[in-house]
Amino acid sequence: MQLYAIDPLDVLLFREAKPFVPGEGAWAKGLFPPMSITVFQALRSALEHYETKKRDLEFIGPFLLDADNTLWLPTPKDLLAIRVGRNNSEPTEGSDQDATKNWERVTHLVSVEELSDIWKAISFSSEVVKPMVPPQLEDGEFICGRPESWIKAEALIRYLQGENDYKPEDFHSDPWKAQVLPHIQVESGTRQVKDEDGYFTEVAMRLKPGWKLVAGMSGKNLDEQTVVRLGGEGHRAIVTPINLSIWQDVEKCYKPGKESNFAYLLTPGLAQVGDEPTYGVYPQCWEEKLKGVVSDRAILWGGVSKVSRRLLNSEERQEAEFTLLPQRAFVPPGSVYLFRDTLPENQEVLPVSKPGEQKDWLITFKQLNYGKLLWGKRK
């Protein structure tokens, strides 16, 4: 699989639309970095046209690359930043300003099972995975937040190896800015906004100088620089083949070793609950093997859908109607799964197909490496 640096020539636009009704509040939301399928379609457009419809291309990404060609990946969500109070003083209001940079060390959440005496008052359902809690700290230490949202690939490899030695420069905040651009369509001959499709927004994303997206794709390698369309309004990006030696170390973590007992989610996953359009943070078949999970709010993405709502005060359901709702709720990258003595057979955060069942969309998700896990060991 060849890696490619993707350098936007201008802002990137990712549009969301909502029918506008006068009197209601308008909203807009952008997703960045974009989902895998968005970047994959852009890279694939640079390949020679071929007639086969077979899903024979693999893809992974996108991630971030800085001006020094340093690879940045999502920070594990179980990490905590620790500071030490000065002269045994208690932390005061405002003392945690820039806490994501001004910390002495980083630790991680642990299963409540390891600190049952300290957290004995905590209550939770016995039918769910036990919660992860902060570890016991030394005198004078306090939690000042989380490290910044991106971590160097080299530091992530150390994290997967069970090491706990980090520096503030191993982490970085989101290297982009967003600008919401509203657009209004007015009824001809009036001053009224159109009832439908009269209002939509564009979310413009601008990467900071020197920063690029990076992604990998199989197939015939692009030997030279090329230009592709990425996002809305025909905005373009320069695609350049690139070699990163650290990527080989990342690939070595694709499969668990003999001592592996936890996994880090590298790309957005999909943990569907049964056959219903309901989503969690881990596959149901993992539940008995999980010791703990750390995640965050889901990534809502997918497009339009048709839903059938139950009528008020009735068990009857009305006919399915068109609605602009996210079709799927993806598990965010950086989520962490801590396992017990045995690892699950299904080692990706994707739905499991039934015997003899073949879903084209699931095949596509596998080819694009959604739900990709990196495996590590924790002492």
- Mean pLDDT reading: 85
* Silhouette: globular
How many helices? The count is 4
Distance between the termini: 33 Å
Q: What is the helix/strand order?
A: EEHEEEEEEEEHEEEEEEHEEEEEEEEEHE
Poorly predicted sequence stretches spanning 5 or more consecutive residues:
17-26
* Domains, number: 3
In terms of quaternary structure, the protein is single chain
Tally the beta strands: 26
Q: Tell me about the biggest sheet?
A: 8 strands, antiparallel
**Order of neighbouring strands in the sheet with most strands:** 11-10-4-3-14-1-16-15
Beta-strand proportion? 25-35%
Percent helix, as a range, is under 10%
Q: What class do helices, strands and sheet pairing give? A: mainly beta
Radius of gyration: 23 Å
SSE topology sketch:
Elements: E1 2-8, E2 12-17, H1 36-44, E3 59-65, E4 71-74, E5 79-84, E6 105-108, E7 110-111, E8 132-133, E9 141-145, E10 150-152, H2 153-160, E11 171-172, E12 176-184, E13 199-207, E14 212-217, E15 226-229, E16 236-242, H3 246-251, E17 262-265, E18 271-272, E19 279-280, E20 290-294, E21 299-301, E22 305-307, E23 321-323, E24 328-330, E25 336-339, H4 360-367, E26 373-376
Antiparallel strand pairs: 1-14, 1-16, 2-13, 3-4, 3-14, 4-10, 5-6, 5-9, 7-8, 10-11, 12-13, 15-16, 17-25, 17-26, 18-19, 20-25, 21-24, 22-23
Protein name: CRISPR-associated protein
